[in-house]
Write a structure and sequence with these properties.
Elements lengths: L7 E2 L3 H25 L2 H4 L4 H23 L5 E2 L3 H26 L3 H23 L1 H10 L1 H20 L4 H18 L4 E4 L3 E4 L3 E3 L2 H4 L1 H17 L6 H32 L2 H7 L4 H21 L2
Length: 305
């Protein structure tokens, strides 16, 4: 008996990759909130997901750039019932993990810690399979194996440089503090400044540290810009490249200030946890991913000589 022919999706690979990345950032962000509230972040090894999340975010952005330069994409099978099944299993494993984390808070033990890590990793794997499908994932990994290798290597390098250059964050944190304070005053929120880059609101105080300085996002943007410029230097208008570089940095700093401002407003008008927890989640890398995609989509053709 002949098998029915495989039907292929016209949905670009980027849509599936973006969907998985957004789902992953949301899940890990929620679980980061869960673990940080109960001191599990450092004591039980859940800090590792912060590092992995940033490396993954860097990898996705670099891979998207390299894949775009390759022009064509592999044919991917359409979504089927298996995608929904994988998503269902992801929900089950993540719900179980949430329950185990609650038990871990009450009864700290090694085996509960291991189970919590395994359930989280299994849930993330099911999310990946749900976003792509098993055959689509295999085809994508095979088709982009070289680009994926270089993307992961560059992402690890960027993350290492980020840690080395993190000492430069203080001037950028001061800039963010002064700018956000001005925006809050314009918004009618009573706010005063205090030593050590701190803003005092009626309901809480916010200290501007490395997470809200934007230094990590700035280093990544510079690295990615240099990567693209080096790959396509012969095809680019060099004067426009320098102008775009300055515009890109200025725009990123502005977007980061708006991000912090919106988080503080959310904490002030909705719930304090929005301001206190999302500073340390993946809102920064998520905003950076969207900003980078829009920046290169709008600017790349204009940079060509």
């Amino acid at each position: 008996m002949n098998k029915s022919p495989t039907t292929y999706s016209i949905t670009p690979l980027y849509a599936r990759l973006a969907g998985f990345t957004c789902a992953l950032l949301i899940v890990v962000g929620i679980f980061s909130y869960r673990t940080s509230n109960n001191q599990l972040h450092e004591n039980n090894g859940f800090w590792i997901y912060a590092a992995l999340g940033q490396v993954l975010g860097f990898t996705v952005v670099i891979l998207a750039i390299l894949a775009y330069r390759k022009k064509d994409t592999p044919h991917l099978p359409r979504w089927s019932k298996w995608n929904l099944i994988y998503f269902g299993w992801a929900t089950v494993f993540l719900a179980l993990d949430w329950w185990v984390l609650g038990r871990l808070v009450a009864h700290d033990s090694l085996w509960l810690t291991v189970v919590a890590h395994l359930l989280l990793l299994t849930g993330i794997t099911e999310l990946l399979l749900g976003s792509f499908g098993k055959l689509s994932l295999k085809r994508t990994l095979k088709y982009y194996r070289t680009e994926l290798f270089y993307s992961a290597g560059a992402a690890i390098l960027f993350y290492s440089l980020l840690n080395v250059l993190s000492r430069l964050w203080r001037p950028f944190a001061t800039l963010a503090q002064k700018s956000v304070q001005g925006l809050l005053v314009i918004s009618g929120v009573h706010v005063t400044s205090a030593p050590a880059r701190t803003l005092l609101l009626h309901k809480f105080g916010v200290r501007f540290e490395q997470y809200c300085s934007g230094i990590g996002l700035l280093i990544l943007f510079i690295g990615l810009f240099c990567l693209v410029a080096a790959l396509d230097w012969e095809k680019l208008n060099h004067k426009r490249v320098y102008v775009a570089f300055l515009i890109g940095i200025g725009g990123l700093l502005l977007v980061n200030i708006i991000r912090v401002y919106m988080l503080i407003l959310g904490g002030y008008f909705i719930h304090i946890s929005i301001a206190s927890q999302l500073y340390h989640s993946y809102s920064g890398i998520l905003v950076f991913t969207v900003y980078s995609a829009l920046f290169w989509k709008l600017s790349y053709k204009r940079l060509l000589a």
